[in-house]
Write a structure and sequence with these properties.
single chain, 308 residues, alpha+beta, Thrombin, subunit H, tm1086 (SG structure) fold, 2 domains, six-stranded antiparallel beta barrel, six-stranded mixed sheet, 29% strand, globular
């Protein structure tokens, strides 16, 4: 078992609420110069959940589950900055008001720009929610460290989820981490250059169809853990040969230039101390039994996969 400083972590209760779907109210333009008007960020998204494909939706930057904010009017200010920075992937969320009071959800990650916290709730729960409902996040994980691997930095990761990732110690100072997809550095776009990765995400560009096909990027699902090669996320997002970063997919494919499925970072190293291992089930839905990985939803999905 990986040794961590979990006993030293600070745990907060953070309050937020669902954020209504956003739009600029004008035509957007895709990377081929074609205008479009489509659903995008925000909302209580009823028919999109973790474990579903991140491709194929009639939308752009679509966020699965429930998009949450501490203040819809001040997304880049207190208290929303604290909500974004301290909430971690795998944290539990509880509805404390409304018809669905008491129901539980799971934090999936952060979406930069919109400054949304993405939280997965079951569809029957989402059907009962309103935009005035209160959600409490049990935030724990920022500051998590691996005692025996000082060259590997962790961000945005609940220690309980870390234990479920099935990471394997090789004995040579390298950790083998299950991922669904290995993404080359050339594909990383919007979000590069950010000062840190403790909130927000950055995008896997999908404007070149041959590269998308070559690396199987179009098979990515919401909630997939993916490896970003030659990307060092310790002090921001930057190219560094030999570096490896691991993240989770938090929003859909995009039509705009420089964009694509968004990734929230959970692990990074400046040297090749992380070895990605392909596992098609390396998805938070399957690990935690949520979204399309829960009960009958999982059975339906597995049958569809068998028929492909």
């Amino acid at each position: 078992m990986l040794k961590t400083n979990e006993s030293s972590l600070v745990e907060f209760l953070l309050q937020c609420q669902p954020g209504p779907p956003r739009t600029r109210g004008n035509w957007e333009v895709d990377h081929q110069g074609k205008p479009f008007l489509l659903p995008s960020i925000g909302g209580i998204t009823l028919n999109v959940q973790v474990g579903d494909p991140a491709f194929g939706w009639a939308g752009d930057h679509v966020e699965p589950g429930v998009s949450c904010t501490a203040d819809t009017h001040k997304p880049f200010e207190h208290p929303n900055v604290g909500l974004q920075l301290y909430s971690c992937v795998g944290n539990s969320a509880t509805l404390t008001s409304g018809e669905a009071k008491g129901e539980k959800g799971t934090v999936i990650g952060h979406h930069g720009g919109s400054e949304h916290l993405i939280v997965e709730f079951a569809r029957d729960v989402k059907e009962k929610m309103t935009y005035s409902d209160t959600i409490m996040i049990r935030a724990k994980g920022q500051g998590l460290k691996l005692a025996d691997y000082p060259g590997i930095a962790l961000f945005n990761l609940d220690p309980d989820l870390l234990r479920k990732l099935e990471i394997r110690e090789t004995g040579d100072g390298v950790l083998e981490v299950p991922v669904t997809t290995v993404v080359p550095a050339v594909c990383m776009g919007s979000g590069i250059g950010s000062a840190h990765v403790a909130k927000g995400d950055y995008d896997i560009m999908t404007s070149d169809p041959d590269t998308v096909k070559e690396y199987g990027i179009d098979r990515i699902r919401f909630g997939d853990f993916v490896a970003l090669m030659d990307h060092d996320n310790r002090y921001g997002r930057a190219y560094r040969k030999g570096a490896v970063s691991i993240g989770i997919v938090v929003h859909s494919d995009c039509l705009e230039a420089g964009h694509g499925p968004g990734v929230t970072t959970i692990m990074t190293s400046a040297e090749p101390l992380i070895r990605p291992v392909i596992d098609p089930k390396a998805n938070i839905a399957d690990l935690l039994g949520i979204g399309s990985g829960a009960g009958q939803e999982k059975e339906k999905r597995d049958k569809i996969i068998e028929q492909l």
